[in-house]
User: Fold these one by one.
Assistant:
Number 1:
Amino acid sequence: MVVALAATMMLVGCTRLTSKDTAGPAEETDTEVPKESEETETDTEETGSESVPTRWLAIDADSTYTCGVQLDSSIECWGGLGSLEPPLGTFTALAAAGVFTCAIASDQTVACWGSDSTGAASPPSGTFLQVDASHEQSCGIRTDGSLECWGETYWYGTASAPPGVYRQVAVGYLHVCWLTDAGEIGCWGAPWGYEGIPKGPFVAIAAGAFTCALDAKGQIRCFGDGDEIAGAPTEGVFTAVDIGYDYACALDDAGGIQCWGDDRNGETHPPKGVFAQVATGGDHACALTPEGEAVCWGNNDYGQTTPP
């Protein structure tokens, strides 16, 4: 989902966070500070009202939970059903899918965890550049540019795309859409999720109950069947877009967030501020500041909008 859509912003965020993090806290090299003072100060940072928030390299949300890639490239999840303990290791990207999650490891292989009733959490071997997932199916772009999907949907089976080189894949509720290397869109599955496919080229795509694409000028085009399509912003320049189930959020070139669609839990009312990434879940959303701090809003019944 969001991880691929905001790839440019993510790389910027990772560079800032990595260079800033490697500098390390000043007290580690200050030999004049007694050990007792160090312990007291650490306790204050961890338990006091001025504790330092966790920093993240990437984040994604779905259904009742949220997961993020931390500065050490490990994954931590919080919230409800999908927040099963992630595997150990280092990762660069992830895709939350309701009852399971998939992530790309540092060696570019894919690891998934959680419910595997449809086979969507059993990735094939090999190396991948991008992965996306929904509640019944997962898809990825291999390092050779080919597209492969796994997991069988109840109504439509497993998605397949014609041979070729692909830029990105987006897995929606009952459909899958992809961008070819030329920036054109192709789709598979329930047609109500993608009817009225616009002509490209496009640079990014997102899917939920409907589909949106981002062109090279930063304009958003949404299509499919649903009232949410009409609410897409028509003014402004955008760098990323992500879709929950029946709402969407987009990141503009100033770092602001605009959301539209269903708002029963306040999911289309993002906070003001400057952000580097936005990720939408079932009825909650989260964003990362340029410094890597996570900010979430919407339904918090399972603690999904309360990052650790």
Number 2:
Amino acid sequence: MSLFAERVMGAIEWVYPWTDYFLFGGWKIEQHIARPEFRLKNPHGTVMVKGRLAKCEKVFREFKNAGRVAPQPKHLVLMVHGMGRLSTLFQGMGRRLAENGVASELYRYPCPGRSLDVQSNRLRSFLGRLDDVEEISFVTQSYGALVVRTALAENDPWRERIRLGRMVMIVPPNQGSWFADQAHKAKPLKKIVDHDGWSLTAEAAAKIPIPPMPFAIIAGGSGRARGYLPILPGDNDGLLKVEETWLDGAADYTVIPTVHFLSAANKNTLEATIKFLLYGAFTQKLPKQSAVEPSTP
């Protein structure tokens, strides 16, 4: 994808008005956030029908009864993107996970103009509608980590039937963001930060509970005293300081040479993520038949 195409797609996804409502066997029902409309999409992303929820559910049942819907995986890895980022950056992640026998799906949600509580409540409702899944793991990028952490803070009924696996946070603002803190101090930007980015301040991020599952963190950085963005103090990925990704209780932690916005597609990120999901550590070697070459990030 060219840089121009990526910017165009990024702008489109920034205003993406749909949120995932239901998932089964790769089939999704999405809900429009501004009007009472739903749409059913097959595993290839084709919209099969749109309209009322009951209509979408009826058509889905027809496909399922006709044997055209795959069984739900017992262990599902849910990938959760960051704020307004390209969902295409997770395509490589999904392919690599599949090559290692791990089923995954991307959870999509609209980003701007919605508080963290709204986003996490939507995810909680989505998880509550998952059927036939016995274990769930998470791979998050940036703001997605805060959405998942906030959602897992509540002991919802689905937790009684779906056990928690492992979680990999890619460039997460676990300690907040220096930029959000600076914007919050500036009066012209304070209102915007309070509405959309308050959860990215250090004060707000500190209130989010630690995930109740084994988790690991992948930070991005240059490996030098100065990171990819010189105006940001210390080593950084161009948006977050390395130290802002840390969270007490992490089972593993690594810093990979990558910029923030491309972190989920970085080959070292893919390798480290698969290792932790399969073995619980970044340093484990993958099987020889794996498509990912074993090494230590």
Number 3:
Amino acid sequence: MRFLPTIFCMQPMKSKRCVLAVVLSALFLNAVYAEEISPDSLAFDLFSASDTTDFRTELEMEENQFWCGIHPADSIYFGCWDTEWVNPYKIKIDSLPDSVRFLCKNYVHPIASTRITSHFGLRRYRFHYGIDIGLTVGDTVRSVFDGQVRIIDYERRGYGHYVVVRHPNGFETVYAHLSRVLVHKNDTLKAGQPIALGGNTGRSTGPHLHFEVRFLGNAINPTKLIDFEGQQVLQEDFLMVKKDAYDHKKILDELAKAQYCTVRSGDTLSGLARRYGTTVSKLCKLNKISASSIIRIGQRLRYR
């Protein structure tokens, strides 16, 4: 069984991400395994041989410590408590454990509504990392589990007003497009505690709650954990199997390879195809248009 070494996170006040102290961890691992581990790959290899049962036990032990002033799931997150970035960890999906058990007791649905207006998955040129639930502006938004507020921020062209909460079970949840936030950074929360009022801020076409579930920065489809119609978790003792929880990885990989161009005056589909070494039929397939479609100046088209 591999021991998970502690990696300290040093975050200057103006820092935009956590800086992992990989030297101490590399020395530890080299001493135990007599292997060469490059600093660049260390953060992504920590979990490759993690045992599911022991991993959960560590989380359960920390749940008791959390209420004594330690951040929830602190060692699992390498001691990193970043208050600016939703995903400061930069851990690849491939490097996550094959399976992890989460204790999801005392779940409380984030809002009273059960009306899903947009699902997790691909949205034309980008990926939608959460579930959108319709609401009325001013509806109470609640923390789904016990936890601690890690981020409160505003993105004019994204989340709008949003809150990120880390939970002792190892999950983090994101609540976005809020009209008003009722908590502060580092506040400790009980499941069901009001954290905000629903709204329509940021990149939003109507009042709704954008809700995400993440593990070590990587989003999973919330419907794999939660029955939104019944407003309850599917299993209190939840086994997350990587190949199922992250079955959208192939789509993410394709999006990472995607390349785009912006239509200029005089451009045609055939001209763009020649310019970028592709064909009109491929352009049409990638952009879900036909060869007779009219393209507009400023339009964004994918060519790879």
